[in-house]
Amino acid sequence: MKILSTLYKEFLLLARDPGGMALIFIMPLALVVVMALVQDAPFRDYQEIKLEVLFVDADADSLSAKIKQAFAASPNVSLVMEKDSIVAKKRVQAGDFKAAIIIPQNTSAALRNKTRQLITTVFADFGLPAQADSTPLPGVDLKILFDPAIKANYKQSLSGAVEKIIANVQTAWVLDELQSQLGEGKPAPPKRDFKLTEIVRVSTQYASENKFQGLMLNSVQHNVPAWTMFAMFFILYPLAGNFIKEREEGSMLRLRLISGSQFPVIAGKFSFYFLVCLTQFVMMIAVGIFVMPWLGLSKLALGGDALNIFITACAVAMAATGYGVLIGVYFKTAQQALSFGSVSVVILSAIGGVWVPVYVMPEILQSLSRFSPMSWGLESFNDLFLRQASIGVILPNVLKLVAFALVTLLASVVIHKSRTVV
């Protein structure tokens, strides 16, 4: 009965506190919407590389034609023709374009000569009829100029694409030269056009079930579970505030005079705010499913099994509530509790991957994130939403959250009992 009475009392306290209600329910909803909108562009920036690249074609031969043909089929790179390499450099340096590809004169001819010399040298080494020209040929000087402010992933993607095109062209020319030299002095057989890209085909897809193909981490998939946990842990504001207020007003003293254990008092508070956290979770998930698409963002995809999602939500709610109870019991004034509590929650969320995904953090913060309960919860939600993980995959993180909750609850009981002993 004492637990039920505490539940009812906490309900009345929260219902009579419009500021606390807004902090628990309204502010988190606004926060997750704003953060999803703000971070939508950066997430697309990481995942959808789209570049306008200057192209200076002084070669006007087969190599430059192959490069233009390849990028014409690319949805991520658009070539903008420019005649003067000096002008191109200035425009990239000014930040008008992120990169410029410069194909000097006679690049294709130089590459063919280098290829021919290579084949001839190899034939001569094996004693085959060929006359090797040992005169060193100048290297092929193709340039890619980058804006100094370009992101490293853009630079790597563009460089890799150009190098791949050149490698394909050179390989095709090697085969042509082999056919030409082996057929020298013989009736010319028809040359074969070998499509090397058909020998080994590389396809890319996400390792997801068929109905979830194409589902990836975006601003909605990251921000909804991340800021939901942030809101859950901020339950310490009304929880700790009410706890300390009761202690200051003498309510705790009157409860102390009642015979029996003080555990039901803490258990009642824990149970009520645990249910509040689950209510927050349901509301935030509903925003991700119904409100985000209305704002032009992606719809939150739950992906995993509903039962596993509920288990994870319960584990996070337990950890958040246990932490709030501990803050309320340990600190003697509301100012101490709320100051420490807010700063600690912000730190735990920052290193736990709430603000930005853990994989883009410095290595030292990635190591520290393993000790944040928000990291355990967020990783579990990612496993469920994006990877359709089973209970066995999320179980270690769920057990960490439950253990964290039990430890904080036990510590709260011990501290509370030690301060109420006559």
Automatic annotation (TrEMBL):
Localization: Cell membrane
Domain ABC-2 type transporter transmembrane: 23-413
Membrane topology, as annotated: Multi-pass membrane protein
Main location: membrane
Xref: InterPro entries: ABC-2_transporter_component (IPR051449), ABC2_TM (IPR013525)
Pfam families tied to this protein: ABC2_membrane_3
Segments traversing the membrane: 21-38, 224-244, 272-295, 307-331, 338-360, 394-415
Keyword line: Cell membrane, Membrane, Transmembrane, Transmembrane helix
Record protein name field: ABC transporter permease
The organism of origin for this protein: Chryseolinea lacunae
Lineage, highest ranks first: Bacteria, Pseudomonadati, Bacteroidota, Cytophagia, Cytophagales
